[in-house]
Write a structure and sequence with these properties.
- This protein is mostly helical and 100 residues long.
- It has one domain.
- Helix content is 55%, strand content 8%.
- It contains 3 helices and 2 strands, in the order ββααα.
- This is Biopolymer transporter Tol.
- It comes from Kibdelosporangium phytohabitans.
Length: 100
């Protein structure tokens, strides 16, 4: 699958005319792939919880979606405003949290 176009500064991807914060490019490929996998699992769990009308499971799954998005740099403090050490700490903490 081709990468979506980015804004000239590289901070956002543009999809259907909307800007979305890009994933932090400093995250190593293996870690980014693991975080995306955990994000997709959490999104599937949101859907399953909604179908089951399990509000507690839905809240837990949504919290995992948020944690993965923060770890990827797509939410929270913009990755371009953080130094490399803070960026590394962000994605490592996200992986540790989501692997529990």
């Amino acid at each position: 699958m081709a990468e979506p176009p980015r804004t000239p500064d590289g901070h956002f991807v543009v999809i259907d005319g909307r800007r979305w914060r890009a994933t932090d490019p400093e995250i190593p490929a293996e870690a980014a792939a693991r975080l995306r996998s955990l994000l997709m699992r959490a999104r599937r769990d949101v859907g399953a919880a909604r179908r089951a009308q399990d509000t507690e499971a839905e809240r837990e799954a949504r919290d995992r979606v948020h944690a993965a998005k923060v770890a990827l740099g797509e939410r929270g403090v913009p990755w371009w405003e953080q130094d490399s050490a803070a960026r590394r700490q962000r994605w490592q903490h996200g992986l540790a949290t989501l692997d529990r």
